[in-house]
Amino acid sequence: MANKITVGHVHMSGCTGCLVSLADNYEGLFTILDNYADLVYCLTLADARHIPKMDVALVEGSVCLQDECSVEEIKETRERAAVVVALGGCAAYGNITRFCRGGQWNQPQHEGFVPIGDVIDVDVYIPGCAPCPQQIRNVCVMAYLLLKGTPEQQALAKAYLAPLMALASEGSKATSSEACGCDIMTKVINQGLCMGCGTCAASCPVFAITMEEGKPNINRDMCIKCGACYAACPRAFFSFDVVNQYENILGIIDGAMNPGGN
Amino acid sequence: MDYLGKYKSAVAARSTCSEVLAGSQDGGIVTSMFIYALEEGIIDGAIVAGQGEKPWQPKPIVATSVEELLSSRGTRYNVCPNMSVLKESVRKYGLDKVGIVGTPCQIQALRKAQLYPVGLRDVCDKIALAMGIFCMENFSYQSMTQIVQDHCNVDLHSLKKTDIGKGKYWAYTNRGAVSQIPLKLTHKYEQPGCHVCLDYVANLADISTGSVGSPDGWSTVFIRNNNGENIWNKAVAAGIFETKPIESVKPGLELVTKLATEKITKNQKELEHRATFGVGKGLRNPYI
């Protein structure tokens, strides 16, 4: 028990889809909670009313500027968590809440929603809507190894998390990232880097990207700004140090999720 | 720099199936491997380059039958975004064991996607066999059209096969004519994204293959990891391929190493050039 890390799920303006995605690891979630992490805060699943001190905060949802409680809680989260993870497109990039203009019941005056990085510094981004269960699982295992592992495991976890930390440091500079298909255009294709693999199209949760003549064609009206396409693109970021070890890393994650060895 | 990537063994090989060889690019390795894997239940289907809407335009398809695999034989020399149907292969086609063939960059994308499956729910642990193909560069459909129609003076409808080898771009027609142009004439049509690629022989595939290094009609094959070795050995034992030690064939691995070194060195220079592209401003480098 003493060796576990403490994790909290902080719910801002999101749909709970990211938390459901975490839970969709099914027995894997139990493995994580049994062996690696204590869930010290989670309004849906744990009985704690106030944000406690914790190692890792998984923040879901964007911050509503007109909701005093949300603003207070995101600041508390930053003060009390060693590592703040933006879990999912809303926390990382605003996602669908970018399109809110207020007027909805029962809080019509709630109209300004911003990614958490606009209010606090964020350490790690997990883009996507929702980020897939295996991506959340991988980050959980790597966060555990980073905080509790051997020096070797720590180095590996650091290398694995580095690109997600880079996304966070880039995204936290307000307005630096469109976090939508536009990123594929401006940071990949416009830069002469696209080779037409199609990973962006496969990663888009709303099928806003189709491959036309070997290149992504982005339907901007359909894009929800979750950031999945850019994060998935091998020409957005690619670390040979990490990916060359894919078998080793997948083996470590697999081993961690099957501690009994079956 | 590790130009050929990690591998357990390398051989020259070709399919023993005459039907595959009748339409394959070289040794029919990918097609025969997928047919074998499909029939043995090693994969439930494979993402391959099927026929698109226009002549010689590939389209990624999820092939679940031998017929579909056979009709996808051969190299088209233009971009086929195989990764784009990866999610579909699992979520729509319901495959539990996915085969996929890809160029080195596509296999890089695949391995990155397995490690960072941002939007690929329940997909990353279902990759059963990743076949990589050697690749120096690729062309857009329009570029390929330009090369074949304008430079080689061959109509796409009468084109039977295209090939790159011996420093030339070749176009063979259905009526037996052969047109060839120096490969250097095609360089300007290359896809720009290929110029930052640092992989020639699909270092991250389970098994990678290509013509370079082996005699005409044969392919060089790298068996890279346990999964690849396991499947390859079974296929060879089942008589799917005939093999020769790579040391016994000409030009052998020496040429593969030479071309890999040339490609990677050239593209590393391009990355350096990009870093100082403007006046005090550079272009983005994707490698971190």
Could you describe the 3D structure shown?
- Chain A: InterPro entries: 4Fe4S_Fe-S-bd (IPR017896), 4Fe4S_Fe_S_CS (IPR017900), Coenz_F420_hydrogenase_gsu (IPR017681), Hydrogenase_assoc-protein (IPR051349), NADH_UbQ_OxRdtase-like_20kDa (IPR006137), NiFe_Hase_small_N_sf (IPR037024).
- Chain A is of the alpha/beta class.
- In chain A, 40% of the residues lie in helices and 16% in strands.
- A five-stranded parallel beta sheet of chain A has the order 2-1-3-5-7, with helices on both faces. Chain A has a two-stranded antiparallel sheet with strand order 4-6.
- The two termini of chain A are 22 Å apart.
- The model of chain A has no long low-confidence stretch (mean pLDDT 93).
- Chain B folds into two domains: 204 residues, no CATH class; 49 residues, Nuclear Transport Factor 2, Chain: A (Roll), CATH 3.10.450.750.
- The radius of gyration of chain B is 19 Å and the shape is globular.
- Chain B has an eight-stranded mixed beta sheet. A three-stranded antiparallel beta sheet of chain B has the order 6-7-8, with no helix packed on it.
- The model of chain B has no long low-confidence stretch (mean pLDDT 96).
- Chain B has 288 residues and is an alpha/beta fold.
Structural descriptors:
heterodimer, A: about 260 residues, alpha/beta, Rossmann fold, Alpha-Beta Plaits, 2 domains, 5-stranded parallel sheet, two-stranded antiparallel ribbon, 11 helices, about 40% helix, about 15% strand, B: about 290 residues, Nuclear Transport Factor 2, Chain: A, 8-stranded mixed sheet, 3-stranded antiparallel sheet, 8 helices, 11 strands, globular, nickel cation binding (chain B)
